[in-house]
Design goal:
Elements lengths: L2 E9 L4 H17 L4 E12 L4 E7 L8 H8 L3 H7 L2 E15 L6 E7 L2 E2 L3 H11 L4 E9 L9 H6 L7 E7 L2 H10 L7 E2 L2 E13 L3
Helix pairs in contact: 1-3
């Protein structure tokens, strides 16, 4: 089953310039270079939500995110990474499994429902993936749930930024235009996705994509 590393976070204002250089020139390239990674995408909040940035990486299987090659990177952060970790704020980081997906385009905007407490997808949630993907203005839809096995929480990199919050899962709707994303965000009901407890809905704009060569 396809794996996902989903990340939501803020950045301390004093570190933003370094944080942006790091993401543009080193971090995504380094991470996607780990065996098993397919691509990474960065987004910035436009409406709703509770964190400024949303990033996700797609990997061949969820256990890539606890593999020896990946953990070795976390235990030996680069100088730029070490500096960047000081500026992360309000980090939510979760290894997920892709439970359902439909659509084959990349959208410029994304509606993201993050389940913070519990998410047990219903049959309705899985059928909604296909129905939404067929709507005008929708590029791709994905349903993720937290994997049983998470990345080790005591690596050198993680210790430098503090404890991460875990999510229970997420629902991602990529849209062609901002108006499409706003329309979808206004109609999504977290309870219909199998979400109980706190859920956060945000509209994000795509910043960049880095794909594995070959």
């Amino acid at each position: 089953m396809t794996g996902i590393l989903a990340i939501w976070n803020d950045c301390a204002p004093e570190g933003e310039a370094h944080y942006e250089r790091w993401y543009k020139s080193e971090h995504m390239q380094e991470r996607v270079g780990v065996p098993g990674f397919r691509f990474g995408r960065r987004y910035e909040r436009l409406a709703g939500g509770d964190r400024r940035f949303f990033t996700f990486y797609e990997v061949e299987r969820a256990d890539v995110l606890s593999s020896r090659a990946y953990v070795e990177r976390l235990e030996n952060p680069t100088p730029w990474t070490t500096e960047s970790m000081k500026y992360f704020r309000n980090m939510v980081r979760t290894v997920c499994e892709q439970r359902a997906a439909a659509g084959d385009l990349i959208g410029s905007h994304a509606v993201v429902v993050r389940a913070d407490e519990a998410m047990v997808p219903t049959a309705e949630a899985e059928s909604l993936v296909a129905r939404l993907a067929a709507e005008p203005g929708v590029a791709r839809v994905q349903l993720w749930t937290a994997a049983t096995k998470q990345t080790p929480a005591d690596t050198a990199e993680m210790k430098k930024r503090g404890k991460d919050q875990l999510a229970a899962g997420a629902f991602l709707v990529e849209c062609i235009r901002r108006a499409d994303a706003d329309r979808i965000a206004a109609t999504l009901a977290p309870a219909a996705l199998g979400v109980t407890g706190k859920a956060v809905v945000g509209v994000y704009g795509l910043l960049c994509i880095y794909e594995r060569a070959g």
